[in-house]
Amino acid sequence: MFQNFTAAREPVRGADRLNALRGELERHDCDAFIVPHRDAQNNEYLPAEAERLAWISGFTGSAGSAIITQNRAALLTDGRYTLQAGQQTDPDHWGVVLNTETDLPAWVSSHIESGTVIGIDPWLHGAREFAKLESAAKKAGATIKPLTQNPLDAVWHDQPAPPAGAVHIHDFKLAGRTTRNKLEELEATMATNGADGCLISDPTSVSWLFNIRGTDVAHTPLVLAHALLRAGHEPLLFIDEAKLDIEVRAFLTQVADLRAPETLDAELATFSDGRTVMLDPDSASVALTTIVEGGGGTVIAARDPVILPRAIKNEAEIKGSRRAHIQDGIAMCAFLHWLDGQSHGSVDEIEAAARLENFRREQGEASGLELRDISFDTISGSGPHGAIVHYRVDETTNRTLQTGELYLVDSGGQYDCGTTDITRTVAIGAPPADAVRAFTLVLKGHIAIAMARFPIGTRGVDIDGLARIALWQAGMDYGHGTGHGIGSYLSVHEGPQNISKRGMEPFKPGMIVSNEPGYYREGEFGIRIENLVLVHNADHVSGGDQPMLGFETLTFAPIDLRLVDVDLLTGAETAWLNSYHARVFDELSSGVSSDVRGWLREATRPV
User: Are 142 and 116 in contact (CB under 8 A)?
Assistant: First the structure.
């Protein structure tokens, strides 16, 4: 199993860890310390040795920050984790603050006393974030103090070792472009920005750029490495050569000079002397800015130049994604058919998640497209657990799927040719009427995004409301974005595109984004319907006078018709649902067993 269901860690109760950290802060002449959910390369999902926020607070979500003073500790996180944060932290020692109400700089400016010295690890904060923190601290009469050693590491005595997973080559047939071709494009980007060099610190960008994949981060095939691009010269790739076999080393030395990771500081400082270096102020740590400027260089603050090229999938990547989604859909149908055949109350959340992973694995063995990993820990939530947006079942929370409840399963697979992410909400027995109504309102939002046509230049923020308007009219909403970008056998969450109130990146053909509106009623049920969609050039409409973009749905699996009130759908929405289900049957029926095919025909019947 790629997922285990042992409780991630014992809940952190009491103040022992907090007090140990406070004692260490005194030795650094600090009154407070900020612990972000971040590593030195700004990964969303962290290697075990970088899970500092979880160690100090007990909170295991993928987004958040803590600030610890000598007399209080606050955890800031977003709306996805409202319930989880309250359950995992000790209320006697921690306060939970939603960052929809106040962000970390605002909290610092309004809660920190004048004269406070706030320590930070400069490798764990981006330059833009650091500037905001400095401004907030100044407003409060406090000081931000970058530290040369992380005081939390000094008291985390059983901190895991850094990962040392093997690196493998991502085949050109799947990548669609050579590293040399990608480097030539980036050379032009550096010239446009007047830069002599560019430090790539995001391991997703490094892995995509050099056509390599690894196992340094659970469920995400990243290689933790930095790259220094140098105008007119081969790039320097800072990578642990113990991870490379002879073939991979030979592959990389054709396009880069390899360096040990521990030489990054010195090599970057030497290169920077009298030169200009591009750094992404959001992803590159402020420590890198300090190294460049300390070496006599000038920082050009610019977005990581790899982000947009990797987000716009080429033909090989799109072909791979389609193949991955067909295979994933076949596994999902096998799972949903199995689930429908179980007696109510006989299956629990862990068994359901484990079965789904096994169906993905078995389908991979049958097709020859191996399941390399799941793309994230499966969210397997029955009844009230479905209302916890990023619920992760373990042996202490596991419950059975009871009759009259909804079951929400959000999952995905990592295949050599693509990354998948799908959410389905299904009825266990006869669903309550209010759940059917809510599900149908969510479905209306999902269909609105799937059917959207929009002009070039449209951003996620411009269309996010389409997914919410039916819910809004009913006095309902959901507290997360409607869609995120997704990588090509890379991270399940990838920018810069997204569909949300903060989605400012214009959509471009080739981008893949999720379509996942939802609704959550605390203590009762959760609903989310998620497909991945590809941005493409929409067909010309007779009488239209400008080109339009639209979405092609890539994900194939039935939407539970037991939860659909057809009377709430418009004719166009009903037509979309029937057309989608017809495609699901056409794409998947030849790949499933005969008993699943009969179930699939009924599950995709026209309404």
Answer: yes
Single-letter code of the amino acid located at 4: N
Which residue from 199, 194, 191, 186 is spatially nearest to 290, judged by alpha carbons? 199
Quick: pLDDT tens for 27-60: 999 999 999 999 999 888 899 999 999 999 988 8
Joined together, the tokens standing for residue 310 give 């990797």
Q: At what angle do helices 315-340 and 571-588 cross, to 10 degrees?
A: 90
pLDDT band at 61 (very low <50, low <70, confident <90, very high): confident
Topology of domain 16-155, per CATH?
Creatine Amidinohydrolase; Chain A, domain 1 (3.40.350)
Rounded-to-integer distance, Cα 3 and Cα 517, Å: 25
Per the structure block, which two tokens stand in for 232? 């007119």
Q: What is the pTM of this model?
A: 0.94
For residue 207, give the amino acid letter.
S
Q: Under a CB-based contact definition with an 8 Å cutoff, are residues 479 and 471 in contact?
A: no
Which amino acid makes up residue 165?
G
Please report where in the chains the tokens 């003073």 appear, as a residue: 69
Q: What's the whole-number mean pLDDT along residues 361-389?
A: 96
Domain residue limits, the chain: 16-155, 168-310, 312-603
The CATH architecture annotation of domain 168-310 reads 3-Layer(aba) Sandwich (3.40)
Block residue for tokens 């996620």? 460
Domains 168-310 and 312-603 share a fold: no
Task: Examine residue 547 and say whether the peptide bond preceding it is cis (omega within 30 degrees of 0).
Answer: no
Return the H-helix or E-strand segment holding 553: strand 548-553
Distance CA 586, CA 577 (A): 14
How many whole angstroms from its chain centre is CA 507?
A: 18
Contact status, residue 32 vs residue 116, Cβ threshold 8 Å: yes
CA angle, corner 279, sides to 278 and 283, nearest 5? Answer: 155
CA distance 153 to 132: 25
DSSP, residue by residue, 346-409: S-BHHHHHHHHHHHHHHHHHHHS--EEEESS--EEEEGGGGGSTT----TTT--B--TTEEEEE
- The answer to whether the CB of 462 falls within 8 A of the CB of 501 is no
Q: How far apart are CA 349 and CA 378, in angstroms?
A: 10
Strand pairing report for 422-428 and 405-411: antiparallel
- In this structure, are residues 258 and 252 in contact, taking their beta carbons and an 8 Å threshold? yes
How many residues can be counted in the chain? 607
The CATH number fitting domain 312-603, selected from 3.30.70.870, 1.10.3720.10, 3.40.50.800, 3.90.230.10: 3.90.230.10
Band the pLDDT of 11: cuts 50, 70, 90: low
Residues facing residue 95 across a β-bridge = 74
Give Cβ neighbours of residue 421 (< 8 Å, ≥ 6 apart): 375, 376, 410, 411, 412, 486, 492, 514, 530, 532
* Strand, helix or coil for residue 564: coil
18's enclosing H/E stretch is helix 16-27
Angle between helices 594-603 and 315-340 (to 10 degrees): 90
The DSSP secondary structure of 416-438, one letter per residue, reads: TTEE--EEEEEEESSPPHHHHHH
